[in-house]
Amino acid sequence: MTQNNTLQIKLSLKGGSGPNANWHWEIHDATGKVVKTGSAVGPEHKAFTTARIAKEKLEAAKS
Q1: How are strands ordered across the β-sheet holding 22-28?
Q2: Could you report the per-residue pLDDT of 2-56, keeping only the tens digit for each?
Q3: Integer Cα distance of 31 and 49 in angstroms
């Protein structure tokens, strides 16, 4: 079974570095429209995980 992922995560570094890095994330739909935004402080992998959880919640709500 394949899954059609229409939501995409985009991360951008807004300032700082290492454990004090300030990341801004956006979740875009298939048309490129921003569905949800947020921010996270810390390493990139933690910011991505925060965005991924929000994306999964949006996908679950859509189902």
Answers
A1: 8-15, 22-28, 34-41
A2: 455 689 999 999 999 988 999 999 999 999 999 999 999 999 999 999 999 999 9
A3: 23
Q: What is the pTM of this model?
A: 0.83
24: left (phi over 0), alpha (psi -120 to 50) or beta: beta
- Return the closest-CA partner of residue 54 out of 33, 41, 40, 44: 40
For residue 38, the tally of other CB atoms under 10 A from its CB is 13
Taking the C-alpha atoms of residue 34 and residue 1, their distance in angstroms, rounded to an integer, is 28
Q: Where are the beta strands (DSSP E) in the chain?
A: 8-15, 22-28, 34-41
